[in-house]
Structure formats: C-alpha cells, structure tokens
C-alpha cells in the first residue's frame, strides 16, 4: 500500500521501495538500502547528510542526520 511522507528516516525504515522527487523529477527510486545520503538526500533537501548506524543495535535501520557536513 503506497504511503507518502516527508520524513526520510521513517520512509527508509518502513518501506520496501522509496521514491524521491524534487521539482517534478525522480532523484531515486528503489530499495531503501540503495540511498546514498551524500548524493540523493543532500540534493533532495539541499543540506549535507550523514548516515548513522548504531553499533549496539544492528537490527535497527540506519538513521540519516541532516546538516552533518561540519563547519
């Protein structure tokens, strides 16, 4: 069942496929694991992103942190 959200972390954690659109064009369509935060999410939201994986909870999907580009 298709769902729409602007929450990247929720979409990536709860979806089998993700569609990222910006300005009417497709930036990415595919499985959540194929998202490259430095490319797709940075272009989508116009800010740098970092991928964070919790070592103590390997069953949890990664989180994507906005503004992670540093000073």
Question: Summed up, what is this model?
Answer:
With 71 residues, the protein is of the alpha+beta class. 23% of the residues lie in helices and 27% in strands.
Shape: globular
Per DSSP E runs of 2 or more residues, the count of β-strands stands at 4
Helix content: 10-25%
Topology as a string of helices (H) and strands (E): HEEHEE
**Rg to the nearest angstrom?**
12 Å
- Strand order, largest beta sheet: 1-2
Mean pLDDT: 79
Question: What does the largest sheet look like?
Answer: 2 strands, antiparallel
Question: For the terminal residues, how far apart are their CA atoms?
Answer: 41 Å
Write the topology of this structure.
Elements: H1 8-14, E1 18-22, E2 25-30, H2 37-45, E3 49-52, E4 63-66
Antiparallel strand pairs: 1-2, 3-4
Please describe what this structure looks like:
This protein is an alpha+beta fold and 71 residues long. Helices cover 23% and strands 27% of the residues. It contains two helices and four strands. The strands form two sheets. Strands 1-2 form a two-stranded antiparallel ribbon. A two-stranded antiparallel sheet has the order 3-4. Strand 1 (18-22) and strand 2 (25-30) form a beta hairpin. It is globular, with a radius of gyration of 12 Å.
Label this structure with key terms:
two-stranded antiparallel sheet, two-stranded antiparallel ribbon, 2 helices
